[in-house]
Write a structure and sequence with these properties.
Two copies of one chain form a homodimer.
Chain A (H helix, E strand, L loop, with lengths): L11 H11 L3 E3 L6 E3 L1 H20 L3 E2 L5 E3 H4 L3 H7 L4 E6 L2 E9 L4 H11 L8 E10 L13 E11 L2 H22 L6 E4 L11 E8 L5 E9 L3 H6 L2 E3 L5 E3 L1 E8 L1 H10 L16 E5 L6 H14 L4 E4 L6 H11 L3 E5 L1 H5 L2 E6 L5 E5 L3 H26 L1 E3 L3 H7 L4 E5 L4 H10 L3 E6 L15 E5 L3
Parallel strand pairs in A: 3-7, 15-16, 15-17, 20-21
Antiparallel strand pairs in A: 1-2, 4-6, 5-6, 7-8, 8-14, 9-10, 10-11, 11-14, 12-13, 17-18, 18-19, 21-23, 22-23
EC number (chains A, B): 6.1.1.15
Enzyme class (chains A, B): ligase
Protein name (chains A, B): Proline--tRNA ligase
């Protein structure tokens, strides 16, 4: 059989590009760095949105929408923020046929404009916490774009909250980190992310602390899958977000922000994909079971349609393919590429014996199953394969993480995976040295795996890796 | 009681602005013409999206996402299209700190960029119809902005489809018009829109036919709530969307596009709002029943919480307000403003008699109901009020529509409502004359109320009105 994709071992970046094109997930847009998300890719993003949105709402945040265009002067109010984002801005200079008096920037993120409105809406301590989220597009001009991972425009959710105390802000930033991001990524995406604190060097521009979820991809590199920030009083001071306390004093609020994006699609592909295409964990899969008519024959179409309906009635998200004028082999390759967790193949020969064939994408197994048992077998396979994909990714992370004690060994280990090294053996100077060799500190952890409050805590472990 | 809003009869536009501010639906953004959609407004938009999205998917279209930025040259390829949109474009001239070689426009609509990709994806007649939709923001620079109705940036869905024949394209544009737009607006928003054909003068820039849903607002003006377009082969020729037919000839496709936006929020407000605030039809209401603790007292909070849970278990979307440290009157005014269909007020006195008070927003009625009957009474009220709001809007449309026979009478009638006049008494010259007096032809209908194919059919009726 002709190979469909460049094998991962041969050229991982090319495999990634091939997969995105052949599985029809996305295309490059006409303006450099932009992307077109095709229906097969967007359907996964919609499932991500639904799962994340439910968790964000359960954490008490409400959705809103703030403008795409931000006055240039807003960004300048927080010094680190403008320094961090200036090189990436897209600037609108003309509107309605005229040059604008003040140029406006296309939002790279919305701390500034949301800060301005928080200041209007917050009056008393009773108005706090103010918990907002928006689903939106943002623009950060990219010189080295790669679909889903780094694009000039991407889709994301960005949460923005204001609190009365530093402790409340910290607790909420961490609640989102664990209850929304980690829970979703591990439990639904099947990606066993490591959750930790970013170093000062890797912090979000304008934050006092940045927490991160880091996933290990199929080639051993790290991908930052989502971040949650404590912004201290930086934006509250820049935008005058104040409240009157119960004691009638006027205080600045403490704010947070947190985001995850279409970059998670890249993480999904690079975590679970194999040389035959995508493998989508059942909980996030838009199509969980794909019923295929192998070839036309007596009662075959009807039997397939009946199975489709029975699966749907059992709550399974079902695809259906009875395009028997297209060769079955081509359709099967396409189903592999798109990564449907389970295929139910219905053909004349098996059906004559009362069977359909259950094909599991995760391990490639093909099992004849009596037609009457298909629903139960599919449900069991979906449950098992969700766990199998997670466990496979966890095994990779564990087997490709090396425990070392020196910076030099950590940099060496990062050639093929992750290094765990005492932070005291790295420090700011060691971090700069590692960066010079293409290796970054992904995050800091306590010895027990929990998330530290600051990088100054004793006995922290640093994870060093190459990354996307 | 101090009045909360400017009464509609005194100043309808001011009432509209007051309501949006006081009900906390939206704010003006910092860049002229942009808006901030606040959680109370956005929650309604999310319900609109969910209802529409289900209908769009039922009509076979798949969601995708195309870039915000479009090369300037794309817009120039379809002559009418560029002429229509040029005055409204926002142009990005700088990106990543550099002047761009070719300026890019922020999408005002996406026929061009989607046309470019349809051309890549369509090969054979088997690839047709290609049915796409996207939920996105678009920018059209507005000189006279008004929140939700005309804003420089708005949120919408835009559908784009390609077909093998003109007949198939027409059938699909009309299917969306009726099965998605009309069904949603009438059945869920409770707005009895009139569905008809736009005149050549009012057609979308680049279309061969534009169909529209027109609603009558509380002041008798018309609001265009959604449009569906046949684009003929205009965009297929400009972007070279061709397919190989079953007979092996190469043919240009026929395309459609169709859109509805956050403008529907303006329509909702102006259709159903009254002098006390918004009235939200139950089917679209994010909160259908709002349980309020009138004041603290023995077992009151517990009884209210029990009712909240019982309503939620019955599938009702429930709000809960036990902020008894805020005066009840203020909370009740706020609930009126926000337009929750039903309030369930639980206070010590009524509760002692075993009752809660059911307050219906639609007619203002207050009825003591035994606590054990609340769920049934709420369900019945929601059902009845959905119909009542629709019927009230229909009654207004009928009573404020005047049947006339001359252009002069039609223009006169449009001072206070809609005029129905034979299209033969208007024509292109009469339409221009009406426009000069601030009156437009909203749409054309057949005598039996059905939607004509062209404005040249005999015996058509024109609806003339002032509009937003």
């Amino acid at each position: 059989m002709a190979r469909v994709l460049t094998p991962r071992a041969e050229d991982f970046p090319r495999w990634y590009q091939d997969l995105i094109a052949k599985a029809q997930l996305a295309d490059n847009g006409p303006v450099r760095g932009t992307m077109v998300i095709r229906p097969a890719g967007y359907a996964i993003w919609e499932r991500m949105q639904a799962e994340m949105d439910a968790r964000i709402k359960a954490a008490g945040a409400e959705n809103a929408y703030f403008p795409l265009f931000i006055p240039e002067n807003y960004l300048k109010r927080e010094a680190e923020h403008v320094e961090g984002f200036s090189p990436e801005l897209a600037v609108v200079t003309h509107g309605g046929g005229k040059q604008l008096a003040e140029p406006v920037v296309v939002r790279p993120t919305s701390e500034t404009v949301i800060g301005e409105f928080m200041a209007k809406w917050v009056d008393s301590y009773r108005d706090l916490p103010l918990l907002l989220n928006q689903w939106a597009n943002v623009v950060r001009w990219e010189l080295r774009p790669r679909i889903f991972l780094r694009t000039s425009e991407f889709l994301w959710q960005e949460g923005h909250t204001a609190h009365a105390t530093a402790a409340d802000a910290r607790a909420y930033a961490r609640r989102i980190l664990h209850e929304v991001y980690e829970d979703f990524m591990v439990g639904v995406l099947g990606i066993p992310v490591v959750v930790g604190l970013k170093t000062a060097r890797e912090r979000f521009a304008g934050a006092t602390a940045t927490y991160t979820c880091e996933g290990m991809m199929g080639d051993g590199k790290a991908l930052q899958m989502g971040t949650s920030h404590e912004l201290g009083q930086n934006f509250a001071k820049a935008f005058d977000i104040t409240y009157t306390s119960a004691e009638r004093t006027v205080e600045h609020a403490w704010t947070t922000s947190w985001g995850t994006s279409t970059r998670m699609l890249g993480g999904l592909i690079m975590s679970h994909g194999d040389d035959n295409g995508l493998r989508v964990p059942p909980r996030i899969a838009p199509i969980q079971a794909h019923v295929m008519v192998v070839k036309a024959g007596d009662g075959v179409g009807e039997a397939a349609a009946k199975l489709r309906d029975a699966l749907r009635d059992a709550g399974v998200r079902v695809g259906f393919d009875d395009r028997t004028d297209t060769p079955f082999g081509r359709r099967a390759v396409d189903a592999e590429l798109k990564g449907y967790p389970v295929r139910v193949e219905v053909g004349p020969r098996d059906l004559a014996a009362g069977n359909a064939v259950l094909v599991r994408r995760t391990d490639g197994s093909k099992t004849p199953v009596p037609v009457t048992d298909v629903v139960g077998a599919v449900l069991a396979a979906l449950e098992a394969d969700q766990k199998a994909l997670h466990d496979e990714a966890l095994h990779r992370r564990e087997s490709r993480t090396t425990e070392v004690t020196t910076l030099a060994d950590a940099i060496a280990a990062a050639a093929t995976g992750w290094a765990r090294v005492p932070w005291s053996a790295v420090g700011a100077a060691g971090e700069a040295e590692a960066n010079g060799q293409g290796v970054t500190v992904r995050c800091l952890l306590r010895a027990d795996g929990s998330v530290p409050d600051t990088e100054d805590e004793p006995d922290l472990v640093a994870i060093l890796a190459r990354s996307y």
